[in-house]
Write the structure tokens for this entry.
Amino acid sequence: MSWETVLVAWTGEIINYDARIAAQVAAATASAGNHAAPVMNEFKLTETEQTKAKTLLEEAAAKNGSTIVPVFLYGGEQGRWRAYAEQVLWPLLHYILGEPSDGIEEKKWWLDYVKFNEAFADKICEIYKPGDIIWIHDYHLLLLPQILRQRLPKAYIGTFLHAPFPSSEYFRYLTKRRELLEGMLGSNMIGFQAYSFSRHFISACTRVLGFESTSASVDAFGARVAIDVFPIGIDAARVARDMDTAAVRENMVAIRDLYPGKKIIVGRDRLDSVRGVIQKLHAFEMFCQMYPEMVEKVVLIQLTSPAYAHSAKIEKKVNEIIAHINGTYGMLHFTPVQHYPQQVARDEYFALLRVADLALITSVRDGMNTTSLEYVVCQRDSHGPLILSEFTGTAGMLTDSIMVNPWDSVGVAKAIHACLVMKPERKAELEAKLYKHVTTHTIQAWVSQFLSKLVSTLASYDHSHMTPVLDRPLMHAKYKSASRRLFMFDYDGTLAPIVKEPSAAIPTPRVLDALERLASDSRNQVWIISGRDQAFLEQHLGGIHRLGLSAEHGCFLRRIGSDSWFNLTETFDMGWQKDVIDIFQYYTERTQGSFVERKRAAVTWHYRRADPEYGAFQARECQNHLENTVTSKYDVEVMTGKANLEVRPRFVNKGEIAKGLVHEYKDFDGRAATPDFVLCMGDDSTDEDMFRALRKVDALDQDCSFTVTIGPSSKMTTATWHLIDPAEVVKSMGELVGLADVAQEMGSSVVHETRLL
Ligand SMILES: O=P(O)(O)OC[C@H]1O[C@@H](O)[C@H](O)[C@@H](O)[C@@H]1O
């Protein structure tokens, strides 16, 4: 598939008033594919200058067949537009914690970060056409997906994070953790370099936002965001071409002449704390110490380029260690470590990769490592092995490299030795596999893999089981024209949000008001069909006149207009409860934060206060345990709820109750009749029993029966409609009884409380 490409990019710092230079900088940045290029200018370009700059950019872009749309940013000191991304986000994504501060400076950086993302959104909205795919790159633009989602709700948005994503335990340190995650979740799909990064991201969405997820998606704001892994590659054909020029060959001869008879180890790294140059030097020193017979035969040529945030401390340390190694193991005619702290010309760089006998990459954390991939291409004919840190995002794809833990200097020293004495056949075998991988998983393959996955994700969502959002005008019209109406509302997750402490989920005055108004209409029969016990329902909803209550999934009923409860399980043997409680207790002791709720008939084990992943794991174990013991012995059923497991007698369930209420329906005059309007709302699997049962009642006109699940449209359900959250439920109830904006006061607290989970 071929695409028309439009590159929307920041110009980068415009370092002087000359628009020509600005444009050249931007063009160079853009054509090098550097996405992390936002920059500012103290001087505002005039319109003429902007046009001039734009023309120059367009000319540059036309040369490689693309279109560049520059984002111009003005005002203040230029570095401000990068500050948050590079001073706060970048270190954290690489597991580096900053010094504690009063946060004032960070706040300013954050505001600039927001503006920076908005500037991109403005530019994209100017040129966007329906059907376009917007592909957002990297950590400078994490808010952009959500800003665009608000402005262009139907846009196709993919995001790729080139950097690592840390464990949620680390990500939580950010004060703006919610905003950043929510920002990313405006995408249809988010790609990461390595599986562990995607796993950490999903875990952060579960733990920080309380969103539901699978191993390949996160449900956010009613949509399913696909999460996938796309390790990036290089333009292998271009490297193969560029490493085979006359200039490179000349340089190769020159380098060999400098180190006759020596084995060359090569390294090229940015001089920051994550590329592991210090670890590499320690390991090399250890190698010299462990294998003295090798010392004179080996040279380490280390190229370094300056870090984003220049680190004088690291530079000093590197120089000290190098001086120490060279002082200890060097001689007048020989220096074991050759350090070149400068950008070398590309021809020299490729020549070095070609003449090297070994490449040594010891990053302690990085998204991907280009040098390792380029080295593999350059070693096509000479087969030098590659030592690679297991902490680089590239490790997952280069499995035929020699993997090391850079913190283990003895281990790395041994690996260096093993590679230097490795048999030629073994080297050739490893290189063949690596070469095949790098030349197959190229940057071109990466682009098409990302885009095809995004397209297929979009296509599958368009045609799959997406449940439409409740058609409120339609429901309202059917309600108006009906006179025998039946309402069935689940409680937790439907009328009240799920919160950490079940007893805290009490109905708001708005919910009570809407229920009261609905129930007071004689044409309406309103029921709460809940897993809660009688005491809870009675205490919080019992005061509403003409409200029917069904507790513990149908074990107890309080009919409309009655004060007394009817126990459907009276004759049922409750001996099973002890066995269930014992098992629940066993898991409670082993799952910190979990607890047992004992009701009259049903028993519930809650893990909403436990670690979400461990809780879910223990729940699966517990469910198996129960199904292998209790359910084979007694006529009871295990149900999976929202962060809970419940056991209750099998013969009562919400489906049976719903069916019964339709069959027993009596009109205003007490005559048996079929309801001509049914609204049934619920959020979890126990409510699916109601939806299924209602579908099967032949007497019901299905066009007048509204089954509504509360949750995202992507949720698997038998309901016909969906609403996002309890706030929307209350809003639609309010509309039926003429209350406007009833959800106003619920909105924020619902969202907030739900996310606390
Ligand atoms: O059926 P509902 O109203 O969603 O309730 C489900 C469960 O929700 C939990 O929060 C309650 O503690 C349980 O007792 C209850 O069974």
Remarks:
- The pocket of 6-O-phosphono-beta-D-glucopyranose is lined by residues 490-493, 502, 530-532, 597, 604, 641, 644, 646, 684, 686 (CB under 6 Å).
- Residues 237-438 form a domain with the Rossmann fold fold (CATH 3.40.50.2000).
- The longest strand covers residues 263-270.
- The mean pLDDT is 89.
